[in-house]
Amino acid sequence: MAAVSFSVRAITLDLDDTLWPFAPIGARIDQVLYEWMLEHSPATAAMYPVAAMRELRERSFRDNPHLHHDLSALRRLALAEALEASGASMDLLEPAYEAFYAARNQVEFYPDAVDALARIAAKVPVAAVSNGNADLDRIGLMQHFAFQLGSREHGYAKPHPSIFHAACERLGCGHGDVLHVGDHMEMDVAGAARAGLRSCWINRTGETWSHPELEPDLEFDTLTALADWLDAHLAA
């Protein structure tokens, strides 16, 4: 996909599967929660081993579409149901959630991600815009960001245009002067494009673009390639 020239005054950046892969985090969360329950509520662990807890979480997601912007609330719902069904004390809910959240924020960055992010943030303001519930302070990256805007805080999740517009307003930029960067065809690229932002698809897997409506303005396989493009583009 040919890179074209346009104004970039700021960047909004997705987190999960853009700066780090989420699959290893999800697997670790499942195991950490199971081991935590084994120690603190063996009856819950017996009733909800890893597969059963995952099924409960997925059902909670399906049954509560009004909470799809708030993954933390959905996680608490699943944990509360597991504790209640197994006869455990509800006093365990917040400690169980904290065990989950600590594991959720243990990330393994893509090899290029941190250096490229630092290069990008040195050029233009960067705002994190995510449907997930990662905490950049815990992860240790907040110094590279102007702010973090999550769907829970905002009230709507990507690809809803309002979360992109809210980020642009906080950045003090017109929609067309902001480049949204992310891995997801619909949530990131199409959502940003419909909201009037420029879009960059980070395609680390070599996937063929297949969205029926829209194409990204830019496509790179690493954040380093985006940083290189910004260097050349802003210099020009």
TrEMBL record:
Q: Pfam families from the entry?
A: Hydrolase
- One GO molecular-function annotation for this sequence? hydrolase activity
Under which name does UniProt file this protein? HAD-superfamily hydrolase, subfamily IA, variant 1
Instruction: Please list which residues make up the signal peptide.
Output: none
Instruction: Supply the alphabetized keyword list.
Output: Hydrolase
| Transmembrane intervals | none
Report which superkingdom the organism of origin falls in.
Answer: Bacteria
Gene3D superfamilies registered for this protein in UniProt: 1.20.120.1600, HAD superfamily/HAD-like
Entry's InterPro entries?
HAD-like_sf, HAD-SF_hydro_IA, HAD_sf, S-2-haloacid_dehalogenase
